[in-house]
Amino acid sequence: MKRIDIADVADIATGAALLGAGGGGDPYIGRLMVEEAIRAFGPVQLVDVDSVPDEALIVPTAMMGAPSVMVEKLPNGAEAEIALEAVETAVGKRAHAIIAPEIGGLNAMLPIVLAARRGLPLVDGDGMGRAFPELPMVTFNIFGQSISPLAISDELGNCVTVRTVDVDSAERLGRQIVVAMGAAAQICCYPMTGAEAKRSAVRGTVRLAWEIGRLLRVAREQMADPFEALLTYLPTTDYYKHCRSLFDGRIVDLRREIAQGFTVGTVEIENTAQARISIQFRNEYLVARQAGKAIVIVPDLIAILDSETASPITAEALKYGQRVRVIGISAPPILRSEAALRVVGPQAFGFTDPFQPIEEMA
User: Fold this and answer.
1) Of 103, 98, 27, which Cα lies nearest the Cα of 316?
2) Looking at residue 362, what is its pLDDT?
3) Could you tell me if 186 and 236 lie in one domain?
4) Where does the record place the S-Me-THD-like C-terminal domain (predicted)?
5) Measuring CA to CA, which of 25, 62, 105, 215 is 20 to 30 A from 114?
6) Are 74 and 26 in contact (CB under 8 A)?
7) 47-63 burial by CB neighbour count: b if 16+ within 10 A, else e?
8) Domain that holds residue 252
């Protein structure tokens, strides 16, 4: 068992921003919220999923909506408690622990906030091993866990509890509710037992984010190369064994808008030889292309990092003229299964490209 204290939060936020593949929401906002919650309510215990009793209730929580909106429409922390209480009432059971649906950006941090406010442990794991934009795109769903009841709460205290016949209906109806709440709201969903979490969670990802953030910080403090530190560490992990630098350059074109509750667009990056790559995103970076050919594609991860500091840059923080390095990282093996690719592969996002693992791409 480890304890998350204020001194640890910045490293976790940095690592979560990288694993978020551009999505999950602004990690800096999440960092500030966690630090405030820990000051007010104390540190959070990080527990392995195997330590949770089989019959205990575990509840995921996250923000749903467009990350660009979340930059200005800040959560106040109470939304998650309201949504959690709605789920607890609906299932007739108190939560034993909290888990992140995705280990990406703000959505990796908000579960820590809720755990601190409620005095509950945080499970070391999540439902993606990265970030994705839609409710069905989690391992909980891939393993057959019901999303219902889904509770959606906004900063005004409004809360809607939804029970649906399937997860696609939850995504469609929930997205409409979130748009009506201003395109960003906090949710609790996929309530599950300890036994169900042991079967479906991507384990150990909070510690992985923590370690990624730590090694990047230490590399900068020691005036070492943070990219070398990152690309040396990732292959030693259980999930992110294949990674490489894809491109170095400057952002020369950026098209970004909010559509149907998502931050969507394309960024183009050019190097000194005037070669270009383009990256499409819908909250998260989905596919990188060079000369029209995909060089990395979802569910494998694409990270855009500041070229000097290796700080991860989320899709809503991209700016014209930024000098960046693009990194491709293999997804956790669970996301590359046939069942998972039907939910999180290229076709799930409307691409016609077949999925090809990054290690097999030239």
Assistant:
1) 27
2) 64
3) no
4) 169-358
5) 215
6) no
7) bbbeebeeebbbbbbbb
8) 225-360
Q: Which residues pair with 248 in a beta bridge?
A: 325
Helix (H) or strand (E) holding 212: helix 205-221
First-last CA distance in the chain: 42
Domain count across the chain:
2
* Six-digit token string for 175: 């997205």
Crossing angle (nearest 10°) for helices 106-118 and 27-41: 10
Q: Which two tokens stand for residue 195?
A: 């036994």
Residues 196 and 210 sit within 8 Å (Cβ to Cβ):
no
> Which residues lie closer than 8 Å to 256 by C-beta, 6 or more apart?
68, 263, 264, 265, 267, 315, 316, 318
Exposed (0-12), middle (13-18) or buried (19+): which is 156, by Cβ within 10 Å? Answer: exposed
Q: How far apart are CA 12 and CA 231, in angstroms?
A: 18
pLDDT tens column, 47-100? 999 999 999 999 999 999 877 777 777 788 899 999 999 999 999 999 999 999
- State the pLDDT confidence band at 261, using cuts at 50, 70 and 90: confident
Report yes or no: 306 and 135 within 8 Å, Cβ to Cβ: no
Q: Are residues 175 and 296 in the same domain?
A: no
241 & 101 share domain: no
Closest alpha carbon to 129 in 105, 104, 99, 112: 104
DSSP 72-120: TS---SHHHHHHHHHHHHHHTS-EEEEE-S--STHHHHHHHHHHHHHT-
Rounded-to-integer distance, Cα 88 and Cα 98, Å: 12
Q: Which residues of 319-358 are buried (b: 16+ CB within 10 A; e: fewer)?
A: eeebebbbbbbbbbebbbeeebbebbbbebbebeeebeeb
Backbone angles phi, psi at 143, to 5 degrees: -90, 10
Q: Is residue 188 part of a domain?
A: yes
Given a contact cutoff of 8 angstroms between Cβ atoms, the answer to whether 306 and 323 are in contact is yes
Residue 204 tokens, joined? 């150990």
Q: Which two tokens stand for residue 82?
A: 């309201």
